[in-house]
Amino acid sequence: xxxxxxxxxxxxxxxxxxxxxxxxxxxxxxxxxxxxxxxxxxxxxxxxxxxxxxxxxxxxxxxxxxxxxxxxxxxxxxxxxxxxxxxxxxxxxxxxxxxxxxxxxxxxxxxxxxxxxxxxxxxxxxxxxxxxxxxxxxxxxxxxxxxxxxxxxxxxxxxxxxxxxxxxxxxxxxxxxxxxxxxxxxxxxxxxxxxxxxxxxxxxxxxxxxxxxxxxxxxxxxxxxxxxxxxxxxxxxxxxxxxxxxxxxxxxxxxxxxxxxxxxxxxxxxxxxxxxxxxxxxxxxxxxxxxxxxxxxxxxxxxxxxxxxxxxxxxxxxxxxxxxxxxxxxxxxxxxxxxxxxxxxxxxxxxxxxxxxxxxxxxxxxxxxxxxxxxxxxxxxxxxxxxxxxxxxxxxxxxxxxxxxxxxxxxxxxxxxx
Length: 418
Ligand code: UD1
Prior knowledge:
The chain is an alpha/beta fold. Helix content is 32%, strand content 25%. The protein has two domains: 3-19 and 230-414, Alpha-beta prism (UDP-n-acetylglucosamine1-carboxyvinyl-transferase, Chain); 22-227, Enolpyruvate transferase domain (UDP-n-acetylglucosamine1-carboxyvinyl-transferase, Chain), CATH 3.65.10.10. It contains 14 helices and 24 strands.
C-alpha cells in the first residue's frame, strides 16, 4: 500500500490551481442519470471517489468517458437502478443515486450505508423525505428498496440541514407531480450548484441558496452541461498549509465560499488577501490560538476541522475546537499527538494546547480530511513524516504531492511492495 513521505519545514511559496469540488461533482453525476442523452461535466477532479462514482454509473447502465477533467455521461442506456454494497461501503455518496433513479424508474435498490470512521451517519432524513413524497420504502438483506410510480410533491422539513438529504430529496422532487417545499434545507455551495444544474436540465427550483427550497415538479428533464465549482475544502486545506509553512496563492477559487475560514485565519494572525478568483495567504509571525466551532454553511466547515486542529497545535496558547456537525470526528487527534501535539478530546470538543514544534512521525490516515491534517502537520514538522493508508487522501485530493511539490515542499509517494 502506498505511503506519503514528507521532509518537513521546507518553506512553501508560489501558486497552485485548485481542482473542481468533489462534493459538487458526485451528486451532479447522479443527477445526470435522470435525463436520456449526453451530459458533459467539466473541471471534474480525477479522484478515487470520482472513479468510484463512474463505476457506479456504469453498473446502472450509463456510458461514461472521462479525460482531462471532462466527463461525458450518456444516460440513455441506464437500465439497472441498483447500487451494490461493495460500492456504497467504500463511498457513502453512492447513496445519491437513490432519489434520481427512483424518480426515473419508479423503483431503486441501494445498499444501506454502514457506519464510518466518524460515527453512525444515519440516512433517516433521506428515507423519511422520500416517504413523504409517496415512496414505499422497505429494507431487504441490507438494501433499501424504494418504490413509487410517480412521486408526489410534499412539504418536508429536515430536523437538521443535511447536505445529502437535501440533494437526494431535491433530485427526487424535481420530476414529482406538484410542488415540494424543503424547509431547513442545506445551502452549501455544492447543493446550490446541484440545484442550478437541475434547473439547467429543465427543473424548476426556487429559493436556491436559502434554507427553503420550492420545487415545482416538471414532467421531464433534458441533459445539460456544467463546469464544476472549485473545491473549497481543498482550498481551505492549502490555506492552512500556507498559514504554517509559507506565502502561497491559490488560483481558480471562489473566496466567498470560504468567508468563515478566512475570518478565522485572520484572527489567527495570518495575512490574507483575495481577488475575485484567488486567495493569497502569508503566515503569521506567531499563530494565535483561536477557538472554532464547525457549523453548516456559511459556518466553518466540518471538513476543515481536522486541518484547523493541526494549525492550532502550533499556535501560541490554548484553543477549543468543537464539531457540531459530527460528534465523534476526531480520529486525527491521536495521530497528531504522535507529532508531539498536545490535544485532548472531550465529547465533541478538542482542547489544543499549542506547542513550539512538531516532530515528524509515522502516522496513519483514517479518513479523507484526517489525512489532510496529517499532511499539513507533516509539512510543518521537523524531520520525516510517513503517512500510511493514503488511499483515504486519494479519495478527495487530486495530485496532492505534485501540488505541494510545486510549492517547494519535499513530499513524495512510495509503494513498499513495488
Ligand atoms: C456531506 C459531505 C461531507 C461533509 C458533510 C457535512 C458529500 C459527499 N459529503 O456529507 O464531506 O462532512 O456533508 O458538511 O457531500 N444526518 C442524520 N440523518 C440523515 C442525514 C444526516 O442524522 O439522514 C446527520 C449526520 O449524522 C450528521 C449531520 O446530519 O451529523 C450532517 O450530515 P450531512 O449533512 O447529511 O452529511 P453528508 O451529506 O453525509
